[in-house]
Amino acid sequence: MARVRRGGHKPPTMNDVAALAGVSQSTVSFVVNDRPGARIGEATRKRVLEAVEELGFRTDLTARALKTGQTLTIGMLTDRIASTPFGGRIIVGAQEAAWQRDVLVLLADTGDDDNVQAAAVNALLDRRVDGLLFSAQSTGLVELPVSAPTPTVLVNCFDEAGTPSVIPDEEFGGGLAMRAVLDAGHTNVLYLAGEPDRWATAERIRGMAQAARAAGVTMGISYGGYDTDSGYERMIEIARGELPTAVLCASDRVALGVMLALSELSLRCPEDISVVGYDNQEYLAEVLHPALTTVELPFLDLGRRGVEQMFALAAGKKVDPQVKIRGRLVRRDSLARPRG
Question: Quick check: pTM over 0.90?
Answer without folding.
Answer: no
